Amino acid sequence: MCGMQTGDDCEAAVDTGATLLGFNFWPQSKRYISPSHATLLTETVPAPVLRVGLFVDASADEVAHVLDTVHLDLLQFHGNESPSFCRSFQVPFMKAFRLRDAATLAQIPDYLDGTDTPFLVDAHVPGEMGGTGTLAPGSLAKQAADLSTRMFLAGGLNATNVEAAIEEIGPWGVDVASGI
To answer: Quick one: CA dihedral 57, 158, 4, 33, positive or negative?
Structure first.
């Protein structure tokens, strides 16, 4: 579950079975959280739940500052970050891809270090970086799922459609934000 902003958010997510909690460090997001506030929240997250930091085209210094401040287990990059940039922090990462066409699919292998490397697919909405509540295109998502055993599906998932999306696409996991 992504977009944690309060202790109640974190507790409710853990209580419902979330295995990863997302903290959004992109200042333009309505789900943005400051590193100092995130530090307070991540300290209360029980093991084995993982703390994920979400970034969009942040500088290396910005990511490093968050890593110096907040205990994160995984980085999630949603912008135009290069494979070398994503790998440069010595912290596991997953790259998010806004599925638009076959060209988007062709970029995914550059970010994978094996068939068990996690990555995320989301809907492509022009001018938006994610969190739009729009479903990712099923046919492209199914093709993406063949690239790794650890694909996360995001984009418009909620209680009324998540089961059907899982059955149709077969992701390893789902990432929800606006649907909760």
So the answer is: positive
